[in-house]
Specification:
By secondary structure, the chain is mainly alpha-helical. It is built from 13 helices and no strands.
Amino acid sequence: MATFPMPRWHFRYLLRAPHRLAFFMGAVMLGASALWWAGVLLARALQWPLNPVVPASLMHALVFSLSYMPMFFCGFVFTAGPKWLKQPAISTQSLLPALLSLMTGWVVTWIGLHWHWQVAALGMALVTLAWAALSLRLALMVWRSRANDKMHMTLVSAACLMGTGVMAVLAVALALHSTLVLRTGIQIGIWWFLAPVFAVVSHRMIPFFNASLIQSLDAWRPNWLLTLMLGTLMLEGASGMVDLWWQPLPQVLRWLQVGLEAPVALLMLVLAVRWGFIQNLKIRLLAMLHGGIVWFGLALGLNAMSHALMASTGDSVSLGLAPLHAMTMGYLGCTMFSMVTRVASGHGGRKESADNAVWWLYWALQTAVALRVVAAVAQAYAQAVLLTAVAAWCVAMVCWALRYGYWFGTPRPDGRDG
């Protein structure tokens, strides 16, 4: 049987399409952050002194939320965006300076988080400038478009511009050594920047994938549903900020949170069924995408339970970080994993279905999310469960980043450009 050598990886292939370069940078940041955090937790468990200038929990929140996610956003919007908006394709070379500045800024920030607040602030300022350039590029593309349906890309652009403001706030917080402002900026970044982008893309793409893969299903995605998803995320972000600045909240406000979160959580779980009947789940790619929507509903449900406990106990009992990790690792992480896998395969000349390798990595990710949620509430075994969760996260994300990082730097197997 004839064997064919694996194609050699080369930087020039990253410049063939925007998603190649941006996804590669995101994969590098994702894999590096997973290994870094595993090292931090292991050092803590072994009682090795690290003594970073910024508290470890804040370093973790900042790096895991805003470092690699925006790079994956760039890969998606500058590849799919021109098609949605009926605009000319974007040159990868034109994005290179801003993307390199973005990655450089995060490296400097990372060093500064361990070493010096002002160095971290300088890195975050560079991140802000780079992201501002990319966000304005997207906004200009949306403004120039004469496409009939610009709603989804307009909302994505607005969220990305919000992200620019968030990064500026974080740079100021680091310069002022303010952990409270830093926490506030991270909350805004998660709920008003990252999650809305995923909600908009999920609303547009998941029903489309369903209908294209299973012809008997319609692409059901009413606009009121997107309005409800975004409105809920806005309220969750506002609630998180109020919690940081005003403790404890009056009991009536806690019950109001429960009354808003519980029905939306149920609706999202019903939506996962509506977008993914049993026959859909036999198609691995769709199962992966629907898994993110399930975590969206579970995160809101956990938030409702946590706020009910807080209302009943005067804020003395809650589910801790379980709801937040269900949203970030569960919804954002699983959706990112699935969407990037789909784009990398479809635009890379490969089958769009998930093969055995990515399927098992996806379940390693699911295991990591479930364990991290359990670790937030299982006080007696929290450290052991947390270390197991981060090990599963490393397996899923490092192996995934290595696989697709290699793909992005090699030619398409079908010989076509892109």
